[in-house]
Amino acid sequence: MSGIYIHIPFCKQACHYCDFHFSTSLKKKDEMILALAKEIEMRKSEFQDEVVETIYFGGGTPSRLQIADLRLQIDSIYQNYMVTENPEITLEANPDDLSIDYLIELSKIGVNRLSIGIQSFFEDDLKMMNRAHNSAEAKKCLEEATKYFDNISIDLIYGIPGMSNEKWIQNIEMALAYKVPHISSYALTVEPKTALHSFIQKQLIPQPDEEVAQEHFQILVEKLTENDFIHYELSNFGKENYFSKNNSSYWLGKKYIGIGPSAHSYDGQKRGWNVSNNSVYIKSILENKLPMETEILSKTDRYNEYIMTGLRTMWGVSLERIEKEFGKTYLDYLNRQAARYIEDHLLFIDDDILRTTQKGKFLSDGIASDLFLLNLE
């Protein structure tokens, strides 16, 4: 089983923390929609023997598109690929785009999962992040969306400068009040060249505090676990049967095709990424050329990637798989590197699976990079 990701590179406005590829102008929207559908068709040979299980509209803000634009992409996938009987079709959306009519039309074209960028229920946080919606729209959209969709995920951001533990708990409790079955939650990170980075440098906003973020993370884990959410990936919590199939396939190393500017693809052996420029992307597709660069992953790259994704998830890293796929040298190296983290109760081995402890979860990316191999080849 495999997935198709479609990058919709348009947003109403730029959030201060975002470094994804998007444009706030819809000038080239119609050309882009046709180019996306054409790229879907151009790449069908890559999935000749694959069954598509997930279709994911990410971005940018896919809910900026009209229903007909989304339908064209879904139809193009059905015309060119084998699709499982009931695929998970996710649309990332902003609260201010989700009118009742739009929600009803989305369900008619087969979208069956929404990922809504709430980020916070508080006005001052939303203003600081330069979100396009306000607090009232966040609440109203969840009241409406839960009437038409059962499978809803919402995004929340923690570690925001000045956010107290009490305020963070209120955010979580408001999310729980809407009975959504999935929550994705991320620490506010400062990416270079973003507005947030510039404000911090000018001392207009304080630098996010790592200790505060860690405390918020622990509160999040406790609150959601108490409410029957399963913490299946570092930033993702789902009720039973509501894990994101799309994201789980990334972490479990399944194949996926990324359509659109800046989208990434992976086939188990090599990774590809499209050009991050709307005009260059459109021109290239019109000339029947894929605007993509690829790299073949070395054995060490694949090992590092498995360590990184494995430690972020509840499935962990299988020591048996390490030995079988990469050899004894890799396994010995991993055991040596992991030893001190096991001693410090940040990692543990159970049933031949290496996992992070509750204490180690928040630090999993840093721990993983310490278990990476530079190069054995």
Summarize the structure.
The protein is an alpha/beta fold and 377 residues long.
Question: In words, what does this structure look like?
Answer:
The chain is α/β, with parallel strands linked by helices and 377 residues long. Helices cover 43% and strands 22% of the residues. The protein contains 15 helices and 15 strands. The protein has a nine-stranded mixed beta sheet, sandwiched between helices. Strands 10-11-12 form a three-stranded antiparallel beta sheet, with no helix packed on it. A three-stranded antiparallel beta sheet has the order 13-15-14. A hairpin with a 3-residue loop joins strand 10 (264-266) and strand 11. It is globular.
Shape: globular
**Distance between the first and last residues' Cα:** 31 Å
Pick out the low-confidence regions.
none
From the helix content, strand content and strand pairing, which structural class follows? alpha/beta
Strand content: 15-25%
Gyration radius over CA: 21 Å
Number of helices: 15
Can you count the beta strands? 15
Strand order of the largest sheet: 7-8-6-5-4-3-2-1-9
Tell me, rounded to a whole number, the average pLDDT. Answer: 93
Q: Largest beta sheet, briefly?
A: 9 strands, mixed
Order of helices and strands: EHEHEHEHHEHEHHEEHEEEHEHEHHEEHH
Helix coverage percent: 40-55%
